[in-house]
Design goal:
heterodimer, A: 6-stranded mixed beta sheet, 11 strands, globular, B: Four Helix Bundle (Hemerythrin (Met), subunit A), Alpha-Beta Plaits, Helix Hairpins, 6-stranded mixed beta sheet
Amino acid sequence: MEEENLLEEEDTQKDKYLTFTLGSEVYGLDIRVVQEIIGILPITGVPEVPEYVRGIINLRGKIIPVVDMRLRFRQAFRPYTDRTCVIVIEAEAMQVGLIVDGVAEVLTIPEANVVPQPKLSASQNRYIRGVGKLGEEEGVVLLLDWEKLFSQEDEELLGRMQADETQEEGADGK
Amino acid sequence: MAEHDQMVEVFIYETRQFFEQLEQLALAGEEAGEFAGSDVNEIFRVMHTLKGSTAMMMLDEVSQLAHAVEDIFFYIRELHPEKVDVPGITDLVLSALDFMRVEIDVLDEGGKPSGVSTELREETHAFLREMKIANGHDPDVDLRKAKKPAAGAQAAAPAPKPVPQQYYIAPVRTQEAAAGPHVYEARLRFEPGCDMVEVRAYTVVSNLQGQATEAHWVPEKLLEDPEAAAVLEAEGLRLAITTDKEQEEVKKLLDSVGYLQELELKELESTDKCSFWPKEPGAPELVPDATPIVPQVEKSPGEPQLPQTRAAKQEAAALAKGRPSEPHESQVISVRVDKLDRLMDLVGELVIAESMVAQNPDLAGQELPNFQKAARQLQKLSSELQDSVMSLRMVPLDATFKKMNRIVRDMTKKLGKKARLVLQGEETEVDKTINDHIGDPLMHIVRNAVDHGIEMPEARLEAGKPESGTVTLSAANVGGEVVLQVKDDGGGLNRDKILARARDKHLFTKPEAELTDAEIYQFIFAPGFSTKEQVTEFSGRGVGMDVVVSNIKALGGSVTVDSRMGHGSTTTIRIPLTLAIIEGMNIEVGESRFTIPISSIRRSFRPGETEVFRDEEGKELLLEDGQCCPVVRLHEVYRIEGAEEDLTQGILVLLDTGQGETLAVHADRLTGVQEIVVKPVPLYLSKLMETTGISGCTLLGDGSISLILDAQQLGRRLLKAS
């Protein structure tokens, strides 16, 4: 019910995507979950989380975890620069900052132009909802499925944590 | 919880309060073996209100059920039957409440309540019928209808003999003193066809409060009496008041209500001239039979009227107590918790901002006496502000405690045991978050106490104990903590059984012979631990105690259990008074900053070369108070680079894990003590953080983030790793 209301109320935001870049690829993020875009802030590291969770930042008194999207999609780490952005998104009562190489623009991609992602086993595809076609010249935008990004990530993280722990135990046991 | 209309939210809130009130009343009645007159009235009144409010919310099933239960109490109130099956009624009320609770929960979650109460209703009707027969009353006479003047006069022999009860305002002073210079009599007629005349009439009457010295009106029971509306339509509202106000003012006051068709207002010489003015305030007034507008007149002299009179007096007394105290109610406002939380967050930020200013690095090394003075003043004010904001969130534990009555009752009934619950210190105040989260753990412990602790009555008698067991639930403020205890005088924990079970589950952390009793008892908090052979409805599945522990840990508290075989056991919960602000010691390890709650630090020192030694596995240990405590190098645990490796160069902080163990945490340096606002680890990370030894984070004076180290979690983590 709430979801419906949300959709109705924010109809003006329908089909609108904030695009950001990771290397040469362009990704799109549903504008409705985007809260704000900030420059990179000092990050406090948090122990024992996957490498792509860089830590937490202090956003005007709010403590928000930040995820490096390059590392998240198994790309090489690139040092942060002035152009590096953090997209703060809020979804499912969680706030997370996504560290991306740069934010491009807001695009309207009608649902008709979205091609579902073929079901491949490649890991990152699970977080791509579909491919948005732009004009002939402009190429495509990979549309992120933020719901999966949140929900599955947890499971995956937990799974990996346990694996880490057993490794550790093995190492400690000597 | 789903978002609601404000009206629905208020409805849910109020209805839940009614449920709790009803439950307490019903249980009190059962405990006493009878329902006191005032309680009957109270239950009747609350059921009546529930009936109305739920009907308004279109919860017809709930409304009809409330109506059925209300009928029972109506019968008791009006006829004072001799045979009252108190436990039976309590059962009915409680099961009705359970049904209603479910419905309200569904509503609260944004669903559409769809339960059907037909069965319960029929049960209730049948029960009332039985009760009427048992008391020699005709079960088919509808009491409410019998109250009509005509029908009432012809009703069967044991017909109701209700006594009119006078409602009046401000009866505190004596009549002479109270009577103002003016006495007015008024008759108000409402427009025909306007809905809810009784409510409108009630509005008129309640408007008079504070304006009139004393007031009486006919019909008296505007809202309670189902006939009131008919009388109001036929006769209008007759009203007599004494006041020091002029006629014009009174007229204006009375005129202000809507749908008024006619208002007659005349001044009388004295109250004696008014036909329905009571001769003596407080006593039931016998209105002359001839007055047709008083529906309940049905006086037969010689009838024993004592119980009714008493009931009437009680009601009058309750009213007398209730009315003048009403101005006090306006001293209390209810505020949404999220607003309070927002305020608390802001104050927390303010305190941090204040220390950012006062300890600003730009000021370092400067002589600024005036600035320092002003900063100290600011600091004092802001910490006072913080204290008073914190106190806003404090609520007494009694509502949570009283819920346990029901649990003990239901369990003893089902298990065939006898036990009573004694509450102590329920007025103790705790943070609302604690109050909200302590209910479930307490319920588990109380259940366990009754189920595992208290023996069957025969066994108790054999052991030379009183047949009925006692479970004591107490709360007290001790230092900065709230200490909650659940004590039972049952059989106590079986040490050998726990040992055997712990052996099966491989829970031992050291040789069996070295385990102390306290450590053995602590095993019952391990997940999946249960020595109970039989799984009952209430406990024995082995889930529960570990949930208790994790719930209480989440509140920053600890649980311990102590027991004496044959004499019962005591479970003690300790929780810090406030969750949000603690005093912490900041430490640095490499580039990372951690904060340790002062409460868990025993001492800190720089060790000499020889103080730290290694055991046969190469683990570093330290001798403290004759106890070996492991040295924890945080940079190794958390893989922090650039930290001090040399123990003699850094500093060791000895932490008490609260489990009888001490950890020596090695840090590069201490950077000072600070009041910190605890912020939860972001939800996204919190699942991962469970085993890391970090319980939260906080903002330091310079705006950077520090992680809060939890000694207990850290201890468990090390235990797991080794």
